[in-house]
Amino acid sequence: MDARTATAPGVQPLDPAAWLRRDSAFAAQMAVRDGLITGERRAEVVQQADWGLPAARELLETVLAAIAADPGYTRSGDRVTRPDGAEIDLTANGPLATIGRLVQEDFLVLERREEEAEHHLGGGVLCFPSRWSLQEKMRRGLLAIHEPVSFYEETLSRRVQRFFDAIRPGRPLWRANWVLHTYPELFQPISKANRQRNFDQPDLWLRVERQTLSRLPETGAVVFTVKTDVAHLSSLSAEEGSVMMAAFRALPAAEYDYKGGDRMLARLVETFPEGAVRENA
User: Is the pTM of this model over 0.70?
Assistant: First the structure.
């Protein structure tokens, strides 16, 4: 709905005080995160390279400083009580697992070492993947990470690397991303070997990611955060549906296909027929 962020990459300056967000879905999302991080699927959602550990430790201290400004959190020594009442032991797990149990955002930590031409993924906590695997992306560079996105190398890779290189401590950036899914689950991992979507499901869900980019002052690592929200498509107003269809039609061909193409557009027309009529009038 906002022209500033409607076209990729749509990056905007961010007030450092607004880096992390807590909303009404906090308790429900944190329950999912706790189960993933402390359960059998931990290796799928928490990954750490040895060379990325200093940055992960710095990130934990940064997150603790940020949530200290939120009156919903309280801290006593090495224990933090979340707004939903859960108590987190800061020493019980590694830094990324601890971060993942403190806030709703997912975190990816990327570093560009001297011998490298681009940033590489040195660690992450990713409880809410949107059809990709953290394990498959670990230690890989930005270009390899975005390999499934057919239009990334041609249209976005150089701009994204420039953004990564230009980020300065204390001056974070943000952007928004959206995609339509046929399932509402927040945890949607998938291997690159199987990325076909089932468009025959009866419902469509709008999945929006609020993404931020910032640089840690000591290690120089770039932190990429993702705050995910999901809503049934029927919850959108007619105006929002009309704008979405117009935006979908205007996508470059490769991105149009990536987001579902003609089959997804047909589903949108079914959901918002009045919007489709106005567009074609």
Answer: yes
